[in-house]
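Hey, quick one: can you model this chain's 3D structure?
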Amino acid sequence: MKDFTKTSGWQKFKNTFIKTAGKIAGNRLLLTLRDTFVLVAATTMIAGFAIMIQNVIVDPVNGLIFGKQGLQIGRLISGSWGAWEASGFCHVLKTIANLIALVSNGSLNIFSLLIAIVFAYEVSKHYFADKEEHMTDVLFAIGAFFICLPWNFKYAIAGTKKTVDILNYVDTQYFGTQGVFAAVLISGFAVWLYNFFLNKHFTIKLPDSVPPAVAQSFASLIPGTFTLGIFIILTGISTACTGKTMPVLFLSVLQAPAMAIAKTGAFAFVSQFTWSLLQWFGIHPTSIWGPIFGLTWTINDTQNMLGQAHHIYSTLFMNFSTIAAGTFSLSPVLAIMIASKRVGVRKITKVALLPAVFNISEPITFGLPIVLNPIYFIPFVLAQPIAFYIGLFFTKIGFIAPIVNNVPWTVPTLLSGLLYTGNIRGVIVQAIALVVTTLLYIPFVKIDNKLNAERIQEQEMDQALKEDGQ
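Sure thing. Here's the predicted structure for all 470 residues.
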């Protein structure tokens, strides 16, 4: 007789994997980074939505409504493209598009500054939770960040090889994507330093009669002075030894190599394969990949939206080709609706269909379930990488351009393809990915039918008896 007291090799692997991944996902630093990028994502999503409206709808030359790639209503109104571009209505649309683009100045162009602020607050909240006031930490972290920024730099004149020395003005490119690593390292270290000195009681104590706000301000004087003083020293050392301020140094030594790795096919494959693997084990992949993407592919997103680059690998592209294409949600639901003979399973799809249309996968992944279900392990883990590489193929051959529009991932499949790309080709790519991943699931739905053949027969007999009774 089989000894059920012994844990199988698969069970041991599953338990070890879940335990290890759970520890990684629960790491306090990763949680802090994840929460930071989630909060800052609100502003970038607003900017991305505005830029999508600008590029897809309002743009009079290349937009989906008036432009050459879409319905071409501009030419229909004016009779020719030349007349349309010279018309007053076209100029009004260009003005509106330029005004919409200003939202980038309050979000994407200050991405690193927002990261520095929010990360300082999250570090204070996660590591020094017993404090009553966290904003003081943020103030000194931002002060340290500005101390470290380059205030004297060479500015390259566009269209020429000439440079101009700029003195006593901050290099604002480090407010954007160039300063992400510097924002994280400097603000986090500043919060730690400030609290280190504060906990050593290097403070000025005032009588109890002094209002709390005033007492708090004086209590922070010495720790804050020490903290900012250390960053002045570090900036001096960095400039003297390397000729670069710390943000410039971090960009060349840390951020540039990380971005180079994130542009590789190996990074893309590992991220897509493990994303669905973690999901199958019931571990939300954003808890691990969210911070990593925040320091890599999210930077690519921002540069794409600003028109600074045309990165293929980005979280926008991942969302377009996989999550918004229904690989986690709509594909398994459609496959079950097509091929499943199990009454109970088909009832689950009736509940899961509407959420799946909006790319919400939990009703099917936990309701069927797919999570930890060995029957659906292969299609669930492979569907996302397959869809990702379908999108990558069509991007590589020039059928679609790199994704620059930020569309909420809950926008229904196919419609999101139109909005992500601004043309019908995005719909075609998502449709192909949806069909392929649905077909991938169908053989495994049939396997499920065979494994539950007796139950299906019983359900069919029950149904027949009910019909006879009627």
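One thing worth noting: Residues 263-469 form one domain.
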